[in-house]
Write a structure and sequence with these properties.
2 copies of one chain form a homodimer.
Chain A lengths: L1 E5 L9 E6 L11 E6 L3 E7 L7 H12 L3 E2 L1 E6 L7 H19 L6 E6 L8 H14 L5 H6 L8 E9 L2 E10 L12 E6 L2 E2 L1 H13 L5 E2 L9 E6 L6 E2 L5 H21 L7 E9 L2 H12 L2 H9 L4 H9 L11 E4 L2 E5 L2 E2 L4 H7 L4 E7 L6 E8 L3 H8 L4
Parallel strand pairs in A: 6-7, 10-13, 11-14, 12-20, 15-19
Antiparallel strand pairs in A: 1-8, 2-3, 3-6, 4-5, 4-13, 8-9, 9-10, 15-20, 16-17, 16-19, 17-18
Chain lengths: 402, 402
């Protein structure tokens, strides 16, 4: 098995057509509605936000996926409105939108998934969605760019990725697009990602592979520790490549392919985080379990003192150690090691302050690797990605909604 | 029983002399060493950081308090150096410092408590501490101001408070001083507070009362969610007022007196938080327990999206609801209520967007009250205080350590 990351996106795998159009949901007239339509109903799997406040499209997509047994004939995505905290009317609009697309495609409603991103607490206009569906049906094509643009809110640019996987049974592709946390307009704390592949796979196996891929990619990033009401990751498999995946056949190839595309999209989201100037990789080693390693890494990645220090280029290992110490998992300061890039700053209970200038030089870069061994003597290891915290983040999120 | 908050500080209660001097620990020559000396060994109690990385003075004070059975003859505090992550040599300096003060006071070493605040990972110079103790012993007086100044790092000003309590058995006082999170010089994530009273009380009863007072005051504030390596709250009781407190006599009066002083000091710390321009009170009601109410309130209080919205005067209730929804405790959006000052923004599953301009007006103030009923139908209630998140916070903490 070999994997190659390639330029491409959601239509790199065979068997999918997509569209992105302006439906008038955004006042600006920018593209705001996307469709993903497999040539035949695809195997589908999805992961949704764990926030107790769940947007209407999350509720509807979850129901549909269960009812359809994981068959997906179409995915409808809108930007410019989250359809969250909109009560029963919001739910009715989400259901009706799915119904309209189902009519257009000639499939049962439960084979439609819906996703939204935008301002919380504002109603989604069914008229606009209906008109948009009509326009998008006529624009379906093997070009993923318009769709990747239509799901953007304040992202700096579209986020697309693809990978080519060769197995003994033949080659297949994985492609995807995502929407990050731009949030110049407040309340767009929403992460959406759509991943396609042309393997033939049953929905439960696809779900298991997606779970594995997301654990080390989308679930290992943080911009500001805020879990939104709309987070959704959808995977669709068309079967068009002729390669079949089961629990016992080509499963690792599918996981690796999905992971490659999800990681690239996840890192694009972090790089495009609000006000971000640096991509920071936090690796924790020596923990007594992977879960504890991840908990320490997340605590460090969400520490405003660590994020401002990285922003300012300050090799401030005391903040890393203090964050690890408050994370609630075993931490042995006497056996801990702190490394910033190639520079060891703390080891054997001793600071290496003479190395600080070299670490400060390293921190001038835009891709920062930080490694902490927590000294618990275990083999638990995890990596989490985050961005720095800049004054621009405050400016973006402190501006009054207009 | 009546309680009156009064101008005053750590020497308002009878039976204590204090001093604050320059010992040369700070390169600037600013005051950096304080002593608190009861006329006779006092009953003492203390609470320390829960960070697994604990500074040397925390380790030593904890040991001494246990050994002495809660008798305290003197407290030695320095600013300008945290003596944290300094290994065995740091521990030796903390012990030796306590020993020097014990010699000067003619008491056993274990009757001395020590506390430090400043940069992590830098050694504390015993020479400077010794010289400072000598100077401070000669300066002991019934004036709390010099000590309140000597424990400052980058605090905007000294933090002092006092309360006068009348009981059927007579009157007593509670006084205190605290040091907040200035952090213009990185790594000073340290909260220290010292509270005195002139009741006569056994150490275990004082400890229980201090615990109660701290739970709703110092443990209910957050500036940036960072628990430091040096956090320490010490209470001392001299007995000089003639009022005796036991579990069954005047105990509520002591708790209320300690709470009044601790709350005032705690709010001073939040107001003086890095880059803070507003004091924000987050009250959560309707939770199924007090612990869950506090958890929701802490999640909201540490949400960068909520803190930037308050900074920018944006009545962004969606961020409050999203933060509550990810806090991990029961939250019923259909029965939830969000109030900003006197203005209801969300109720019965419906936004009240027409009220947003009035809420925006309210948010122009500097004292902001936010209330969320989580709709779980319980009587659990908690208040947490925080400050807004400004670009100044990023500037302060992003500047390279010089």
């Amino acid at each position: 098995m070999t994997i190659q990351e390639r330029a491409g996106g959601i239509t790199t795998p065979a068997g999918f057509r997509v569209a992105g159009v302006s439906a008038g949901i955004k006042a600006s007239g920018a593209p705001d509605l996307a469709l993903i339509v497999p040539d035949r109903p695809a195997s589908g799997a999805a992961l949704f936000t764990t926030n107790q406040v769940q947007a209407a499209p999350v509720t509807v997509s979850r129901e549909h996926l269960t009812k359809s047994g994981g068959r997906v004939a179409g995915v409808l995505v809108n930007s410019g409105c989250a359809n969250a905290c909109t009560g029963t009317s919001g739910l009715a609009v989400a259901r009706a939108s799915a119904g309209r697309l189902a009519s257009a495609l000639g499939c049962p409603s439960e084979q439609i998934l819906v996703a939204s991103t935008g301002v919380i607490g504002v109603g989604l206009q069914l008229d606009a969605v209906e008109a948009g569906i009509g326009r998008a049906m006529g624009a379906l094509a093997r070009d993923g760019h318009p769709a990747a643009r239509a799901i953007m809110t304040t992202d700096l640019g579209p986020k697309e990725a693809a990978a080519h996987v060769e197995t003994a049974d033949g080659a297949f592709s994985v492609g995807g697009m995502a929407k990050g946390a731009g949030m110049i307009e407040p309340m767009l704390a929403t992460m959406l990602a759509f991943v396609t592949t042309d393997v033939s796979v049953e929905s439960p196996v696809l779900a298991r592979a997606l779970n594995e891929a997301v654990a080390s990619t989308f679930n290992a990033i943080t911009v500001d520790g805020e879990c939104s009401t709309n987070d959704t990751v959808v995977a669709l498999a068309s079967g068009s490549s002729g390669v079949t995946v089961t629990e016992s056949r080509n499963y690792p190839a599918l996981v690796h392919g999905l992971t490659a595309v999800c990681r690239t999209l996840a890192l694009m989201i972090v790089r495009g985080g609000e006000g971000a100037t640096k991509l920071v990789s936090i690796t924790v080693t020596g923990a007594d379990s992977v879960a504890n390693a991840r908990r320490v890494a997340k605590t460090i990645a969400n520490s405003p003192l660590v994020k401002t220090a990285v922003h300012g280029g300050d090799p401030n290992w005391g903040r890393l150690v203090a964050a690890a110490g408050r994370s609630g998992v075993p931490f042995a300061i006497d056996r801990a090691v702190v490394r910033v890039g190639p520079v060891v700053l703390f080891k054997d209970g001793q600071p290496y302050d003479e190395a600080a200038p070299r670490a400060a030089d390293y921190l001038r870069g835009t891709d920062i690797d930080i490694e902490i061994n927590v000294g618990a003597g275990g083999s638990g290891e995890a990596t989490v990605w985050t961005c720095d915290l800049s004054a621009e983040y405050v400016r973006i999120n402190g501006e009054y909604r207009t």
